Amino acid sequence: MVQFLISPPMIKIPADNKWTQNNDSDLLGSISKSLNIDLFTNKSALRVSPRMKITTDDITNLGVSSGFVIFNAFDVGNGIYTVSGDRIFNSNSFDGEVAFVETASSPTTGSDNSSDIIYFQKANRLVVSLEHSVVSLNTSGSFATVAGNPLTGGNPHMMCEYANRLYCANYFKQVVSFDTSMNITLTGNPNTFLIGTLDENLLGLFISDITTVSDGIWIFTIGAHSGQNSIAYKWDGVTQDDPDATYLLDSGGILSSIVRNDVPYVMNAEGELMYFNGGTFVRMPNGRLPIKRDKYLKNSFSSVNNRWIHPNGMVVNEDGNINILINNVYEDGTYEDNLPSGIWEFNLADINVGWVHKHSLSSYSTTLTDHGQQRVSKVGGLDSMKIPGKKGLFLSGAQIYSDATATKEVIEITDSADTLQKYGYFITPRIFSNQITDHWIKAYVRNEKLLNADDHIIIKYRTSKIDTTEAIITWASTTTFTTTTDLSAFSTGDEVEIVQGKGGGKTSQITSITVSAGTYTVTTDETFAGVTGTAKAVFGYWKKAGRLSDLDAKYLQSVLGNNLTDTWIQLKICMQFTGEGEINDVIIDNKTHKPI
Predict the structure, then answer these.
(1) Measuring CA to CA, which residue among 353, 506, 284 is closest to residue 46?
(2) CB count in 10 Å sphere of residue 180
(3) d(Cα 234, Cα 213) in Å, to the nearest integer?
(4) Degrees (nearest 5) of the Cα angle 247, 320, 350?
(5) Helix and strand tally (H, E) in the chain?
(6) Which of 464, 442, 327, 317 is nearest to 392 (CA)?
(7) Does a cis peptide bond (omega within 30 degrees of 0) precede residue 14?
(8) Which of 276, 254, 247 has the alpha carbon at shortest distance from 208?
(9) What is the pTM of this model?
(10) 144 in a domain, yes or no?
(11) CATH code: domain of residue 312
C-alpha cells in the first residue's frame, strides 16, 4: 500500500465572507450551532452578543412577565410597566436597568398564563388584562377595574388596538372590544368576534394571539387535536362574527405574531417562521429553528400561555430583525442541543443568514456566576426598548434555574453598554475531505486584537459524532466539581459544558478525572467564577487544539491532533470577550491523504 499527500487549497469559513446558519443541516452554511453570537453589528465579522443580566429577580409576588410597555402620558405614574404573575410591576425610571417594584394599586387577579398589557393610544390609557377583568391606569397613577367586563378565567386575554377600539381575546374563541371610554362590547353586538357557534372543544380551535395591521385585525388559532390544522382569520373589527377572510394553515397552530411594514409574521408550532404573502401564509425560506421534525417543543398545543414561546415573545428590534424568546425543552422532557434557550434573531434583509442564537438568559445580577443559561424553566414576554439616553435593548421575562433544580422568576435586560464579560461559540458544519480522507493539519482563526486581559479564543475539533452524557454536578471550587453519574467513558482532554445553573454558558476541557466510592471528581482547565451549589453539565468529546490570549495577536494557529486523518472534521470556536472583540474567518490547512 502506497500513500501520498496532495495539498488542495486551504478551506476558508465562510467562503464568501457571509456567515450563515442552516438549521436543516450540519453540512450546509458556515454555522451549524450558535450560542450568544452577533452577526449584525459589524456585518461579515462575528462577535459575541452583549450578555443579558437580571434587573429584578425573585421579589415577592413576581411571576413570569407577559410583556412590557413604556408609559409617559400622565403627570404621575409614568415609567416601564409589566404584568407578571398575578400582579402589575413598574420601574418609575425609564431605564430598564432600574429594578421593578410592585405597583401600589396593583390588582391581585392576574396570571402568567392569561394576562397581557398594552398602551391604548386612542384613549391614552395603559390597560392590563387579568384573569377575570381588565384594569386601566388613571390620571392619579392608580389602576382601577373597568366596569362591566366579566372576562372568563383560565384562558389567555391577548389584546390589540385597531381604529378607535381596544380588542381583547376571551373564553378561547371570542374577541370582545372596548371604546375609548373603556365601555365593553360583549357577544351579540357589533365589534365582537366569535369562532363559529360550537363549543371550542368541539370545534377544536382556540385563539392564541391577535394583532393589528392597517386594514384590520388578525386572529390566530391553535388546533387542539393531533394533526389538526389551524386557522388565521382576517377581521375588520366591526362586522359581528364575520371575518373578511379565513386562511387554513398547514400547521398545528400559530403561537406568536408580530407585524413589520404592515405584514404579519408568525411562529408556528413546528418552529417555523411564516408570513402573509398577500394570498396566504407561507413558510419563510431558512426560517425553521433547529427542531427535530418528529418532535414538538414543550406545550406547543397548550390552551394557555405556558408554551415554549409566549404570544408576546416575538419582537422586531431597531435593526428591523425579528427576535424571539424561546424555551428549548421538548414535550418528552429532553432538550435540543442545537437549540439553546434564549433570544434568537432572524435577519429579514438577508434571509439566507437563518436563525442565529443571540442572547442567553443569565443568573448574573451584580456578581459573575455564569455566562448564560442554555436551559430555562419558562419564558414570557420580550420587548425591544431603545430609549434615548437610557440603557437596554431587550427586556424579557422568564423563570430560570438558579442551580440544577431550583427556579426563580426574573426580569432581564441587555447589557447595552457591553462592559461585562461574555462568552459564546459557534460550531462549523461538518467539512468533508477532498478525496477519501484528508490529513487535517492546522486550523487558524483570524481575529481583531483582543480587548481585555481575560479575553481568549479557543479552537476545538472532532471527527466523529458520539452521544453526550448529562450529569448533575456539585461545585467544589472554581475549577473542580463532583458527580455520581458514571463518567467512565470520559478522560483527560474531553470536554464539559455547563448548560444550567452556576457556571452556565461556558465550556472547558477535563484536566483530571478520578473516582472513589462511586463519586467522580473532575478538574477543568478553565476557571468558572463565582460557582457554588449544583449545576447541570454535558460531557462530550471535543478536543482542544489551541488557545489565544495574546492581546496583540491577530490570528490563532492551532495543530489539529497528531497525524489526524479522517473523512471529515468539525470545529468549535469558543470566545470569551469583553466589548467588541470579533473574528473574521476560520481557515483549515489540509492535505489529501489518498490510498492507492
Answers:
(1) 353
(2) 14
(3) 10
(4) 80
(5) 1, 48
(6) 317
(7) yes
(8) 254
(9) 0.95
(10) yes
(11) 2.130.10.10
Residue 344 counted as domain residue = no
Considering the domain boundaries, does residue 323 fall inside one? yes
β-partners of residue 496 are: 508, 539
In a domain, 107, yes or no: yes
Return the residue matching grid coordinates 400547521.
251
Longest pairwise C-alpha distance within the chain? 90
Host domain of residue 124: 62-331+355-362
Phi, psi angle pair for 584, to nearest 5°: -105, -45
Q: Looking at residue 176, what is its pLDDT? A: 92
How far, in Å, CA of 378 to CA of 222, rounded?
20
> Which residues of the chain, if any, have pLDDT below 50?
1-2, 198-202
Hey, which residues does 206 pair with through a beta bridge? 222
- If phi > 0 it is left, if psi is from -120 to 50 it is alpha, else beta; for residue 589 that is beta
Q: What confidence score (pLDDT) does residue 226 get?
A: 59
Q: Which of 180, 170, 163, 158 is nearest to 236 (CA)?
A: 163
Residue 502 has which C-alpha cell? 452556576
pLDDT at residue 119 in the model: 95
The residue whose grid cell reads 473532575 is 522
Measured over the CA atoms of residue 31, residue 32, residue 37 and residue 40, the dihedral's sign is positive
Q: Which three cell numbers stand for residue 341?
A: 434557550
Q: How many domains does the chain have?
A: 1
Q: Which three cell numbers stand for residue 200?
A: 371550542
16 burial type by CB count under 10 A (0-12 exposed, 13-18 middle, 19+ buried) = exposed
